[in-house]
Amino acid sequence: MRRIVIALLATAGGLVALLGYRTSWGATADVAALAAAGEPGGPASATAPPSSTGTSTGTGAGSGGQRTTSTPTPGSSSGTGSSSGSGSAASGSSTSSTSSASGLRDGTYTGSAASTRYGDVQVVLTVSDGRIAGVEVPVSPDGSPRDRQISQTAIPRLVSATLSAQSASVDFVSGATYTSRGYEQSLQSALDQAKG
Amino acid sequence: MTAVRSGAERAERGRLVRTHPVMGTVASAHVVGPPGSASPSGAGGGPLAVERAIAACFAELDELDRVFSPFRDDSAVSRIRRGELALEDADARVVEVAERCLEAAEATRGRFSAAWRGGFDPTGYVKGWAVERAARRHLAPLLAPDGVAAVALGAGGDVQALTAPGAHWTWRIGIADPRDRSRVLAVVELADGAVATSGTAERGAHVVDPATGRPAAGGLASATVVADGLATADAWATAALVAGFADLFWIAEAPVRSGLLVHDSGAIRRWGGGVEVVSMGERDDPLAAVA
């Protein structure tokens, strides 16, 4: 993760995200999509001028279902995957500015859409306490009917490690079954009382 | 991306919440009114209609528990297990569940089974099925254009959510961190759908691999599945736990929308629409955890 932070510093918000898509016929294609940050949507509104561009490609061949690894480097990445996949990333603009020791200002940053063979992919970066808390792909490919189906599915979005259920403003909590006694101590019980 | 509704906008709606102990856990019913409403019933019906529907919903859960609980000597399931009642002579709901269990066993290639505890035991299927059934039969009829905007019924960590057509409402379902259940790892937003999580957090390793008869050993702390209905989501969450962290091949064919696996180590895998979504994050970097 440290390397990513360095990469971000080096490119003023440039971010490499490796997306692995497993398709219905079992083949796997990895798309390395680079999206640089823009449009801060988080608690901090950053104002540095846009400045980052980058490209990425993902190519490879192999057996289906293998998880791949990559070594992100500033401004570019290569992902080796199971079927060939290539992503030509759109240039992105970054608006992050330094505010903490790591140089990352807290907030949520939405990257510009990157064009891939699976459609446009957009990446959201969340910075919390000056560190990268998560990388999300809220906009899924929207090209073929199959991809449209992906977009309509509610992919679980990771939340910051420090976020409580209340601040995440959830209505229910899904977890392994609790007993009626366990309910009393559960997040669900707190939510039921807070919202009822 | 989906706009995250502000807490203020979500709070500006009447909401009625009722809870009810049943099936060894607690069920929670939430009924949400239209924007700006003071009561969950909005313009249509009345608060009494909402209360009645929730009461009927809970009564149905109680009734289904009486029929299906293997912990009650007089339940249909217990009588079948003792050989006092033939399955084909049982209540139509029992026959339906038995058929659904067989279908789920076939669809999951045996990873979900209603027979692992010796004899007929659909316990692992009934809760999700019962909650979905009760929600659709008793809460869904409340939904109206100017009235109740959304309803949801949860029980023991599984949720069935429903929203009126055209209503601007999105349910937000948190996925609990199996290692610290005071936290949520992820949020699923949906209008209609179900979220089920199977895990070992509260009741120990209670999910058994039908193939071995032993507790599932796939390294998973929990498996969450999102599907149209809770019966399906619940069965596939159980199957996912048996399949383990390393195996996501099944998502391509499963009738589910999306989901999330949490490894004992805290590593996470997610998918949607039959494809895995790999992300890199501070605490869940799957590349670092699995490589």
Report on this model:
The complex is a heterodimer of chains A (about 200) and B (about 290). In chain A, the strands form 3 sheets. In chain A, strands 3, 6, 7, 8, 9 and 10 form a 6-stranded antiparallel sheet that branches. Chain A has a two-stranded antiparallel sheet with strand order 1-2. Chain A is elongated. Chain A is built from 4 helices and 12 strands, in the order αββββββββββαββαα. By secondary structure, chain A is of the alpha+beta class. The relative contact order of chain A is 0.17. Chain A folds into 2 domains: about 160 residues, no CATH class; about 35 residues, no CATH class. Chain B has about 290 residues and is α+β, with helices and mostly antiparallel strands. Chain B has a single domain, classed as ApbE-like domains (T-fold). In chain B, about 30% of the residues lie in helices and about 30% in strands. In chain B, the strands form 3 sheets. In chain B, strands 1-2-3-4-7-10-11-12-13 form a 9-stranded antiparallel sheet. A two-stranded antiparallel ribbon of chain B has the order 5-6. A two-stranded antiparallel sheet of chain B has the order 8-9. In chain B, β12 and β13 form a beta hairpin. In chain B, α2 runs antiparallel to α5 and α5 packs antiparallel against α6. Chain B is globular and about 55 Å long. The two termini of chain B are about 30 Å apart.
Average pLDDT figure of chain B:
85
Helix content of chain A: 10-25%
Class from helix and strand fractions of chain B = alpha+beta
Strand order of the largest sheet of chain B: 1-2-3-4-7-10-11-12-13
| Rg of chain A, nearest Å | 19 Å
Give me the secondary-structure category of chain A.
Answer: alpha+beta
Number of strands of chain A: 12
Q: What is the CA-CA span between the terminal residues of chain A?
A: 41 Å
CATH architecture of chain B: Roll
**Tally of individual helices of chain A:** 4
- Assign an overall shape of chain A: elongated
Proportion of residues in β-strands of chain A: 25-35%
CATH topology of chain B: T-fold
Oligomer status: heterodimer
- The coarse overall form of chain B would be globular
CATH superfamily of chain B: ApbE-like domains
Q: Rg of chain B from C-alpha positions?
A: 19 Å
The domain count of chain A comes to 2
| Domains of chain B (count) | 1
Record field, number of beta strands of chain B: 13
